[in-house]
Amino acid sequence: MPTHTFLVNGRRVQVESDPDVRLLWILRDRLGITGPKYGCGINVCKACTSHLNGRAFNPCAVRVADLGPDDEVTTIEGLPAAPDAGGAEDPDLHPMQEAWIAQDVAQCGYCQPGQIMAAVATVRAARREGREVTDADIDAIRNICRCGTYFRIREAIKEGARRM
Amino acid sequence: MTAPHPIAQSTTDLEGGSAPGTDRRRFLGYVVAGATLITAADLALGTSDAQSVVTPPQPAELYDLNDLLTHAALATSNLIAIQLHDDGTASFALPRMEVGQGITTSTAMIIAEELDIDVAKVHVSLADARPELLFNQLTGGSNTTISTFTPIRVAAAIAKGALLDAAARLLGDNLDQVRVKGEGIIEGLTGSISYAELAREAASETTRQVGVLLKRPEQFTVIGTPHTRVDARAAVTGQKQFAMDLEVPGALPTMICRAPTLNGTPVALRNRDAVLTMPGVTHVAEVPTGYAVRAETFGQCIDAVRAMDVEWQDGPLVQQSDGDVRGHLRAAQLPFVVPPIGRTVEHEFTFWFRGNSALEPNCAVADVRSDSAEIWAGLKSPVVAQEQIAATLGLPIDRVRVHVVQGGGSFGRKLFFDAALEAAQVSRAMGAPVKLMWHRADDARQGRTHPMVVSKVRASYSGKQVNTFEQRNCSVRTDFTHGLGEIITRFAAQLPVAGNYAFAQTIYLLTQELGYNFGVVDQLLNEVDLPFNTGSMRNIYSPDTRCAAELTVDDLANRMGEDPYEFRLRTARSPRTRAVLEAVAEAAQWGRSMPAGTAQGIAIHKEYKGVTACVVEIDCRPETVGRRIRNAVTGPRVTRATFAVDAGLVINPRGLEAQMQGGVMDGIALALTSSLHFRRGRFLEASWDNYFYTRHWNAPPEMEVVVVDNGVTQPGGAGEAGVAASFAAVACAYWRAVGGPMPTSFPINHQALAFEPKPFVPPVPASPTDGRNHMY
Lengths: 164, 776
Prior knowledge:
Order of helices and strands of chain A: EEHEEEHHHH
CATH topology of the largest domain in chain B: Aldehyde Oxidoreductase, domain 4
Oligomer: heterodimer
Strand order of the largest sheet of chain A: 2-1-5-3-4
Low-confidence stretches of chain A: none
Radius of gyration of chain A: 15 Å
Largest sheet of chain A: 5 strands, mixed
Distance between the termini of chain A: 42 Å
Number of helices of chain A: 5
CATH superfamily of the largest domain in chain B: Aldehyde oxidase/xanthine dehydrogenase, molybdopterin binding domain
C-alpha cells in the first residue's frame, strides 16, 4: 500500500493507506483526530469542516492520495495555532472558539467544530475581499446544526471576527 | 444500614422549623459509608403537588405526563449519591442522558447551590445503566429537572451539613460558630478549613439517615443565574467525546448494508468472498437488518457496503405511498361527538412524516464475549437497552454492562437503542468488538420517523363565545415500546389489548391542554398500526396538535372580527398563559405595521408544567421566497422570532434560552421545509441535502427569548418546550402573510419534491472526491 505524507496541525504525518480512503477516515480512524465529525459522508452537512492550507474544506470529500507533502491540514484541534489566533486571551484557544464559549453556542456540540472552522474561513474570505463578514455571508454557511443554535452562531461569528 | 439517626447538623437546621416530612424544604437523606464524604438521597423525593384546578379541566391540567413520569419513579426507592473528593471537587453520576439539553450544567448548578461551591468544581457524569432504578433512568418528556431537582438538592445539602460538622470538630468550635465563607472554605472562630481538607474527615464508616432543610429560593445565588455550559470548552476544542470518538480496544468501524425498501430483510449475499478481500475488510456477517461489514476505516466499510450484491425480501409496505397512508388515517379518524352550538368551523390538517435523526447518526460500540457484553452508546432508556440486549444475547443482565455516552442530539431518536442492539448482534456474530455506525442514508431511510398525522378540528361559536372545540388526531402508531425506561413497561406497551395504543392515548391525554376557555373541549387520539419505524420526536404529539388548533383559533378570531392576540388574551384560561401572551406581544411589538406579503403570527402552548407563547414575523414576498442558494430550499423566511417562556423555577436562564431558540428552529422546519416522502415502500430522503431542516439561510436574523417569572417555586421542563408554539406561530404568520384558504398540509413545501432521490441500490452513496474544488 502506498504511503501518503502531509501536514496535520503542524505535524508531518506518513500514513500507509489504500489511496481512495477519504481523509476524514484517515484523520478519525487512523490518526485518532476526532474533532471533525461524520454527519453525511457526501459533503453536505459539513460537520467535518476543517482547513486545507488555511481554507475551509471537507475531508469526507478528499482522497488521501490527493494530498501532497506540502498540504497543511488544520482540524479544530490545531486551530489555536493558526496565524490569526493571536487576539485570543487564552493561548490554547482561537478567538472564534472564545467567542463560541462567550456566547454559549454549543448544545449537543456535535456540529460545532465544523461550524467554528467554517466561521473562521468565512471571516478570512471576507477579509481577502477587503471587507468584514456580513449577515449575507453567514446566511450562506452550509453547516447544519440540528439543535438549531444558528442565532448564537451568528452572534458568535460577529464577536469572533472582531477579535481575529 | 444503621437505624434512622436524624441529626441537627446543617446550618439551616439551626433555624428551627417543623419536623421532617411536614415542611416542603425538609427531607431525609443519607451519609453513606466511604473513604471520602458520600451523601445520598432517594431519587423519588419531591414528587409534584397536584396543580390548581379550573373547572372543567382537561386531563393534562390535573395530572400531566410529568406527573406520570415522576410518579412512575415512586415504585423504586434507590439512591443517587454525591461524592466529595480530597481535591475539593464533588462528583455525581446523573442517571439521565445529556443530548444537548443542558442537564449536566443545570445539575452541576443545583449541586453547587446547596453545597456552596463553585459550579466548576462539580463534575457531573452520566451513570451506567442501573437496573435497580427500574423506571427511574429514562430521559424523556423534558422531565429530568422536574424529577431530580429535590433529591439532588437533598444529597448536596446533607454533604454541606456533614462538612460543617467535621469543620466544627476539627476547629474546636461549636456548630453554630462555623459557616461557609464561600469558595469551598469553612470558617470558624479560630481559623478556617477547606472542603478539600474535610473530604476525608467528614467521611462516615457507616451509612446513616439524616434530616436536612433545603435553602429557601430567596437564598439562591447559583440557581436562576445565567451559566455557560459546563462542556462549552470541550465542545469548541473538539475534545468532547461522542460514542464514535471512544477508543475501545479492538473495536473497528462497522456498517450494515440495508435493504432498498423500508424494513426489507436479507436473503442472500452473493459475493461474500469478494467483499472479504476488499482493502481493510476484516469480517462480514448477516444480522436481521442486513449484512454487516467490519473494516479498518469507515470509508472502507462504505466501499464494501456499496460492493455487496444482495438478494432482499421487500419490506411489508412496498405497495404503500404517503398518499395511501393519509387515506388509512382519514378512514380511522374517530368521529366528533359534541353537538355543535351555533356556527361551526371545521378543518382537516395533514402533517407528513418527519425525520427525528440527530446529526450524530445511530451508533454504538459493542464488545460481546461468550459470557459477557459491554456496550457504549447514547441511550435515553439504558435499562431497557440492557435488558433487551441481555435477552437477545442470552446473557444474565448483570453480565451486560451498558455505558451511557453523551449524545450528539436526540430529538427522541435516542429513546430507542436500535444501534446498540444491532452492535451487540454484530459483535456476537463476528466474534469481535465493533464500532457500529449507520450511514446517514440508513439513518434517514431506515431510521425512526415522527409518524404522519391527520388532525381534524371542529369548533362552534355564537357571538363572541366559542361553545365547543373538538380535535381528533389520527396518527400512524407512535412506538412507545421504550416504555418508561424499564422492561416491564416496555412489555406493557407491547401487549395486544391494552398495549401501545392505550399507552399512546395516555401520553396524548396527559400532554394536551388547549389552554383556552372554549366551552366543551375534547381532544382525542387514534392510531393506525402500520409497520413503520416510529418514535416520539421532540415534543411528541404537541407540535401537530397545537398547529392545527392555533390555525383554527386564528380562524375563529377572524370570524369574530378580533385581533389574534386580543382574542387569545380574552379567552386564555390561566393567568400564566395571559402573562406569557402579554410578554411576547410587548417584546415583539405585536400589531406593528408590516409590508404586504409579510406578517406576524402568534400562538401559545402549555406543557411541561410551564407555558409558552411565540410571535414570529415571516417574509413571503417573491424576492425572498425565490432566493436561490445551491442545493437549498429557501422559500418564506422567518425574519424575527420572539418567544416568551414561563418554565416555573428556572435553574439556568441561559440554558433555557438556548432550548427555546433551538425549539423555534424546529418549529420553522416543521411549518415550512422538513418532511419525508414515502413512495412505494421507500423513504426518498437520504441525507441533509434532501431533508430540509432549518439552515443558516432559513434562520431568523432577529431573535429574542423572554423568560417570564410567575413566582412558581418548582422547575418545569425545557428541552421540548420551544417547539409547539413556534410551529403554530409560523403557520399562523404564513396564513396571514399569503391570505387565501387556510394552509392545511405541513410542511407547506411537501407536495413539490425539491430534489432528485438518490439510488436505493447500493443503499449508501459514494463519498465524493472533489472536495478541493469547493474550498473557501
